[in-house]
Amino acid sequence: MTPTRAVRPAKGGRRRSRRRADMPLLGGVRPPIALLCVLVLALAGLTAQVLGPAGEQAVPQAVLSSQQHFAEDGAIALRASIDERVTDLNRTAAALNAGPPVKPERVLSDLGKTYQKWTGTTVLDLESGKVLAARGETIPLGWLDKDVLTGDTALKPRMVRLETGDVRLMTMAVLDFDDRPQQLLLASNSLSVPAINLGQFRSMAVVATGGEILATAGFEQSESLNSDQERKELGFLQKQMSGLSARAARETEQDPVSAREPGSHGYPGVSGTLVGASYNGRVATAGYASLSSSDPEEKKSVGAGLGLTVVAMLPVVQQQAAGPDRELYGLLAAGALVVLGLLAAAVLWATVQRPLLRLFLESRRLARGDLTRPVDVPRWGEAARIGSALERLRAQLGGPTDDPGGRQRVKGRFGVRGPLALTAVLLLLWCLPVGLLLNRTDDSVSIPASMVSDQRDRTDLVADRVRRALNEAQADLVSTSRLIDPDDADAGKALLEETLREHTRYQALYLLDGDGEVVARAGKEPRAGFADGDDLPLVRVAGKGGKKPVVQAAAPLPDHKGMTLVGEVRVEFLNSLLKRPGLGEVRVVDAKTETIAASDGFLAFEELPRDALTDLVRAGSVHVGAGPVENGLLIREGRGTTVAAAAPFSGGGVAADIGWTVVSWQNAKDFQITPYEREDRSVLAGLLGLALIVVCLGWVYLVVARPMRALAASAEKLADGDLKSVHYPRYQDEVGAVVRSLELLRQQLQARKQTQARRLAEPEAGVRGR
């Protein structure tokens, strides 16, 4: 019989295919180590970018955002002013139509006494076209035609240009008296810049669709300047305002929902910032905001439908660029991260990945039956325990050994957790100093002077809004009081209920007689009296000791001495007027610095939280010249800086002399100033480093450390003789491959034990047979 020679497999044939089959799939310790290296390099690049001077603006973002908020405040004030004028005219006409006929002269006289807000008023006979009465500025009538008085857009407010070139907003309402032809009540008012404090160097413009400037404020007259240099700078600013207004008009033509810059912090209209050219080291910065209703989906606001835009411009000193040392800081921090990150990856490779791969190869060799050489046992940890158990299993399978009893069991206290802790410490050596020490700020940070002045001016604007709202509330009561008949209680109650429905600012309306008794009421129960004999202002606050202050406005009935119409203004309405982005916490306090309203939660009549704020309010209430003035202040306490401002009520109306003050304050760290931005970036870099540690090392712990501890225990049990427990691999990785090899070794030990048992049983059977 011819012997046949065994055919050797081609090089790299079946053996290579087996290796590929035994190799673990994507998993194990290599992916998290690779991810650690990638994330370290990415974080290092980000650190070099954000901690260096790259991307720093010539103007601090805080200054630009402040101009945007200032423009939004101006737009809100202008829209509210336009809407109030239209609403007041329509309400007056409705009240007149509900009563007996009134002469045109009387109509205009009462209208002027109640509301001082129109540049001209006219009553026109619609049948003959004759002017029946006129007051103030002459209103041109050439624009009145059929389209204005009929159709879907009938009696809608219109912008009309006068012969002088000025633009006026014309508001119309129909007076329909019994037994008289219909009359048209016309009122005109200018679309001027809101009457707010612009502060020093700031200018503001009202811009129409297409970029046409309708009105400006804040520019000095060229005749009052003393030098050609000042006139040249004035011409530069006017040219910048023209160009920035045209750009702002183009931006605000976008829909608020789809605009690139739809405002910030909930502003419903389109708002944003613009940067112009520079002159003498100062850059022209501007904020713009379109007039928008409180809800963009609702088109009820007349001012919002006029297509107007408010532009606020302020020249600011150009910020100095950061020096090369700042860039060096970023590069050094990034370099330190790369070094520590690679060192951490090297620790994981040397102490976790390499021993695990060695165990994978050794276990696979034993499972294939190669028992000729001892197992290469790692030095420590779970890998050493597993290697020692594999060596004992090799000896039990009959492999040659100098120690038939097997090597001693290795005990490890820390195991893989030790390298993981060392890796975490190495990365924390970078994260903690960068996040907690690098670029730290204190109270020595320089705050731009424009931020303090903007805080003061915007606080004064809020004070003006609250004062005007209270004046408007009292004026509405005056208008309503002329229609009340105290002798008809039912009619008076119906009128109060209708007025309460129209005015959401009130929570209760009631009519008091001379003894303070309620004659008619609508809304909630009166919480405080307002007797006519009291020597009190027409706007006051009561209810001390309760949960909420009671803000009251009153209007005596003109022909009924002792009768007073009182309206309680909702505190929530006042709170809503105080909520403005970029202004911090805002409160209204009385002459005793007790809180009446606030943008955030507050306790009724509580004191201000800081003595410095109380002193600021009292200093602003001191009469200087014509009256109290607003004031701004930097409060430096400890490591923090606070920007605060106080604006006492001033101007006209019944609410001007009640002694209230609007005070605001905010932490300077909320400003987007370069030192604070660098500190935030450093903290962010440190937090990203911590996240890197948690993700990568947590991954290693979950997929390698815990399974290796379980594998070490299973291998030692198997080496101690536990052949019944089946080993199931849970993961397709290095640990899972070792578990599969361990199961094969268990099966081989079982087969060897069964074979030995049969061999021992065969001689006994032969002896019995003889």
From TrEMBL:
Q: Which InterPro entries match?
A: HAMP_dom (IPR003660)
| Residue ranges crossing the lipid bilayer per the database entry | 328-352, 419-438, 683-704
Question: CDD domains of this UniProt entry?
Answer: HAMP, PDC1_HK_sensor
Record's keyword terms, sorted: Membrane, Transmembrane, Transmembrane helix
| Protein known as | HAMP domain-containing protein
Record-linked PROSITE patterns = HAMP
Q: Which residues form a coiled coil?
A: none
The HAMP domain extends over 350-402, 702-754
Gene3D superfamilies given in the database record: 6.10.340.10
Indicate the secretion signal residues: none
Q: Where is this region: Disordered?
A: 1-23, 245-269
